[in-house]
Inverse folding.
């Protein structure tokens, strides 16, 4: 009898299924995609310009190499970001000024696009801590590592956190961790950052805390919600700081890092 | 010239087996064509005639007709109990239709879809759980929000635009198990009426429809018990007189036990999972004298999800109604109600010091006074007032962990007031009219904050308000008119217009309805939704009323519709109004239904051709787009066949155009990943949906006091893989490729349910 009840339960729970299907999608005209990053850490402005492609196309996306790219600081000083080929533009030794608004300008693909972003002062990481946990959910036990920092009180802070393990850095936009201080303003924050598994003794764990503008935080949050397949009834392109219909975003951010070897 | 004097006959019509009031029973005068009255929801009728000799004919659906000869020389009180026909009683299920068979032709009330749960108890349903809301979705103009979703759309309106009443108490979330079942336990329900247009003036507060569910009163003759054991849940109902013929009570409970299966699982983590829901319906009524009657009814339901101490999620409704019926005189009926309604949900994560939780609720206190004045046999006047105090608690986070600050969102208070007057009038033998006017107002009050936002949804100003201080007041008039013109005994035409205002709104963004979809009041930012609908219908009965054909056409305009901005943050956000955009909508369509209600073979076939469109300045640059529920074609076929006294067969088949949905039109790379590019809102369609369900009910040998049956059903009999969601993602095996993945929720599902009734 027990067995029958269990089987019935399984029928109910296991009825759903997934399969890959063909969907006929419209061809839309190509749109420019601009990903701009100004990393205060290495004083470098990196811009990548590409074009959208049809959804089921498996060729690499087309890049734009003949655009004129420049960055303007809060004092109106314009610096050119030169092309280094393959759709990438790079300006090195560009010294950051924190709490300054930077404007990135791209003249290409028949239009001038601009985006503004505030370069936020970095928030210092305290040393990484770690702790042993017994396994649960059927997984084996191991070490969890915690990112520690003091959130500045009285201001809205937005963070993106990046984890690295044994030299590999998980910094794809869908892998970064989102943290804001809506519920934690002014507190000492202790947050575990997980890779797929717990860490083991001997692992080198790296963490990077990016203090970002709200627009970059929101963009990352919205992008993460559509990147992994969305169940929203009305998915849309993430809200960007680019004008004139360009996709992508421009993010200027300050960085704080720490590394620990688990032992 | 001395005119003959008028006298009034009044009284009640009840079911002789259990004393339940019969609602909508007709009292016709045999000698006078087209003169009569209908009982109200409490079984009361009043009929005023000239002095004379008459034969009164009492009829109600499923009962034997009774006649009573009277000499009308004075005011009379006539209380009637109608019997269930013997052969039907033994069968216990199939309905003999003894209501005046062309009532659909002659009644003024247009477009009311009415069900007695008994009429549909043989229909096949998911997991064999009888569900009145799922059956309503098989009627024209009513569309289910999809599998795994108890929400429904009426004539292109939103799921929050349906006023769902359980004994007059609003039910804010009518679903269990994230939408697989409705909260209405069929055993406790007397009847359900759904108004799609020509909504009577006594109802208000939602833009698109009214679903009025009435609980049973309980047997006031003798003790009874009934129940059922199903695959997912079991039910038990007990009813008995408090004092015979004076008062009765009913208690009906239901609990699911999917979690009990999990207890048997080999994996400890599955054993630690909690997953169940329960419902408890209770009602008692007592007659204080000839003229007064008190009712007390309540509903409590809750869903619980959990995993050990790690995670918990529960939600539920509680409603209560205290009602006093008073017969002021034989023409004047009063109903006074005090109604409580609450919906809340709670999340908990962890336990003790490290744990934290989120709670959110909406709570109503509601006072209602309704009068019916039966002026004469041609006019019935209804009027009343209503005040609802709403408390919105959008969310509070409480926690032990030091790195979290407790957060309590701005609570909001609203007072919704209304008054209405309505007359139902017969003009000659051919015209029936119902015309009324409703005034409604909404006062959003402190204590609390109000925020102003700019066009991008960023806050620009905030103000504090004291307790009961008005933040914003809205008001409006809602005219309601419907009329029918009887062409012949067999056919008629009807027209209706109604305006409805809606002051509270549910924000929903996901493909599935979630208990966490928040209700927000109208405010300085959110305007009341306004719906105007015109509708017309043609009704024709064939072959001695064996077949009934109805055709209805409608156009609905919707103002101040609400949608989210892209990427809106909706949980624990005090500034959620800044995440909203506003627009308008329109819906139109034509509905056909061919029904057969007599004979061994009954059922209906319905087809709806309709559109539902929205326009928002902030979405797609103001281009008109399809609402999600813009299903162009919608077909349902419902067949019930009585094979023998012991076996009843049933089948239902549905087909509809896939929901409008937003798919990507391209893709691009950003931050090391490939993401979809969207170009237009709801520019695509899900695959068309269709499904066949089959049922067989076997009525086993019964005794005088005990009857029982077994219901076998097969959901999705030809195992169609209908799309629940379609997700666009990177191919996990080859990141250079992208793919579309369809999830199907329910393939073929057999179920068996055992039902019993101790009479």
């Amino acid at each position: 009898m027990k067995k029958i009840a269990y089987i019935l339960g399984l029928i109910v729970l296991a009825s759903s299924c997934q399969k890959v299907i063909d969907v006929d999608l419209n061809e839309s005209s190509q749109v420019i995609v601009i990903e701009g990053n100004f990393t205060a850490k290495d004083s470098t402005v990196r811009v990548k310009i590409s074009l959208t492609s049809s959804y089921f196309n498996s060729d690499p996306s087309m890049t734009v190499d003949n655009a004129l790219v420049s960055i303007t600081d809060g004092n109106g000083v314009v610096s050119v970001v030169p092309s280094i080929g393959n759709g990438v533009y790079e300006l090195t030794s560009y010294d950051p000024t924190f709490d300054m608004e930077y404007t990135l300008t791209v003249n290409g693909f028949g239009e001038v696009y601009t985006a503004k972003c505030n370069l936020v002062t970095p928030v210092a990481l305290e040393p990484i801590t770690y702790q042993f946990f017994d396994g649960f959910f059927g997984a084996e036990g191991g070490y969890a590592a915690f990112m520690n920092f003091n959130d500045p009180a009285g201001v809205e802070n937005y963070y993106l956190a990046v984890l690295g393990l044994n030299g590999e850095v998980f910094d794809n936009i869908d892998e970064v961790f989102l943290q804001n201080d809506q519920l934690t303003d002014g507190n000492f924050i202790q947050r575990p950052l997980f890779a797929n598994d717990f860490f083991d003794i001997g692992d080198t764990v790296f963490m990077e805390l990016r203090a970002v503008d709200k627009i970059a935080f929101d963009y990352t949050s919205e992008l993460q919600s559509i990147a992994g397949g969305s169940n929203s009834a009305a998915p849309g392109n993430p809200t960007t700081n680019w004008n004139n219909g360009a996709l992508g975003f421009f993010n200027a951010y300050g960085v704080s890092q720490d590394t620990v070897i688990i032992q | 010239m001395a005119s003959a004097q008028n006298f009034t006959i009044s009284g009640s019509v009840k079911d002789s087996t259990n004393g339940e009031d019969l609602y909508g029973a007709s009292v016709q005068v045999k000698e006078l064509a087209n003169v009569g009255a209908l009982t109200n929801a409490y079984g009361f009728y009043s009929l005023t005639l000239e002095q004379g000799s008459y034969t009164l004919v009492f009829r109600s659906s499923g009962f034997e007709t009774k006649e009573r000869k009277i000499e009308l020389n004075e005011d009379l009180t006539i209380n009637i109990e109608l019997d269930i026909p013997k052969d039907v009683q033994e069968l216990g299920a199939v309905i003999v239709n003894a209501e005046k068979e062309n009532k659909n032709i002659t009644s003024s009330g247009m477009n009311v879809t009415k069900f007695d749960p008994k009429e549909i108890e043989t229909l096949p349903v998911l997991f064999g759980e009888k569900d009145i809301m799922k059956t309503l979705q098989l009627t024209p103009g009513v569309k289910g929000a999809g599998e795994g979703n108890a929400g429904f759309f009426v004539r292109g309106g939103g799921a929050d635009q349906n006023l769902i009443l359980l004994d007059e108490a609003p039910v804010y979330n009518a679903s269990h198990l994230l939408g697989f079942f409705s909260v209405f336990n069929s055993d406790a329900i007397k009847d359900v009426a759904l108004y799609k247009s020509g909504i009577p003036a006594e109802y208000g507060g939602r833009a698109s429809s009214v679903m009025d569910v009435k609980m049973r009163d309980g047997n006031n003759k003798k003790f009874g018990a009934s129940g059922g054991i199903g695959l997912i849940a079991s039910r038990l109902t007990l009813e008995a007189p408090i004092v015979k013929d004076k008062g009765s009570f009913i208690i009906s409970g239901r609990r699911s036990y999917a979690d009990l299966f999990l207890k048997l699982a080999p994996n400890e983590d599955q054993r630690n999972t909690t997953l169940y829901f329960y419902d408890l319906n209770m009602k008692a009524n007592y007659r204080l004298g000839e003229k007064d009657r008190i009712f007390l009814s309540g509903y409590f339901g809750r869903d619980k999800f959990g995993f050990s101490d790690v995670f918990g999620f529960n939600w539920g409704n509680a409603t209560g109604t205290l009602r006093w019926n008073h017969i002021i005189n034989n023409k004047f009926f009063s109903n006074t109600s005090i109604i409580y309604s609450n919906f809340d949900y709670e999340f908990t994560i962890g336990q003790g010091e490290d744990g934290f939780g989120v709670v959110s609720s909406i709570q109503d206190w509601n006072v209602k006074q309704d009068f019916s004045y039966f002026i004469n046999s041609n006019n019935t006047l209804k009027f009343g007032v209503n005040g609802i105090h709403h408390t919105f608690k959008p969310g509070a986070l409480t926690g032990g962990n030091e790195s979290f600050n407790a957060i309590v969102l701005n609570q909001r208070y609203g007072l919704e007031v209304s008054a209405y007057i309505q007359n139902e009038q017969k003009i000659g033998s051919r015209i029936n009219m119902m015309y009324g006017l409703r005034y409604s107002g909404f006062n959003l009050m402190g204590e609390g904050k109000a925020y102003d936002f700019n066009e991008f949804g960023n806050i620009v100003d905030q103000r504090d308000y004291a307790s009961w201080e008005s933040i914003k007041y809205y008001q409006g008039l809602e005219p309601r008119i419907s009329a029918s013109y009887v062409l012949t005994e067999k056919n008629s035409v009807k027209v209706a217009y109604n305006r409805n205002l809606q002051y509270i709104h549910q924000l929903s963004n996901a493909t599935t309805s979630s208990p966490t979809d928040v209700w927000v009041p109208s405010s300085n930012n959110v305007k009341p939704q306004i719906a105007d609908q015109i509708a017309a219908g043609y009704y024709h009965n064939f072959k001695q009323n064996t077949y009934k054909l109805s055709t209805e056409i409608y156009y609905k305009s919707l103002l101040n519709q609400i949608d989210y901005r892209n990427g809106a943050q909706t949980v624990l956000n005090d500034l959620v109004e800044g995440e909203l955009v506003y627009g308008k909508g329109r819906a139109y369509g034509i509905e056909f239904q061919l029904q057969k209600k007599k004979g061994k073979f009954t059922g209906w076939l319905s087809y709806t051709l309709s559109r539902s469109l929205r326009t928002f300045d902030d979405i797609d640059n103001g281009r008109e787009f399809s609402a999600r529920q813009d299903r162009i074609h919608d077909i349902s076929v419902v067949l019930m066949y009585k094979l023998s006294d012991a076996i009843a067969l049933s089948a239902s088949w549905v087909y509809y155009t896939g929901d409008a949905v937003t798919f990507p039109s391209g893709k691009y790379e950003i931050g090391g990943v490939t993401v979809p590019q969207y170009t237009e809102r709801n520019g695509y369609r899900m695959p068309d949906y269709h499904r066949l369900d089959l049922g067989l009910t076997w009525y086993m040998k019964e005794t005088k006091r005990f009857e029982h049956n077994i219901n076998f059903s097969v959901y999705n009999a030809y195992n169609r893989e209908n799309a629940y969601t379609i997700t666009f993602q990177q191919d996990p095996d080859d990141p250079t490729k992208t793919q579309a993945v369809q999830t199907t929720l329910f393939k073929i599902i057999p179920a068996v349910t055992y039902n019993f009734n101790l009479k």
Remarks:
- DSSP finds five helices and 51 strands in chain B.
- Helices of chain B lie at 86-91, 103-106, 132-136, 258-263, 268-271.
- Chain B touches chain A through 74 residues (CB under 8 Å).
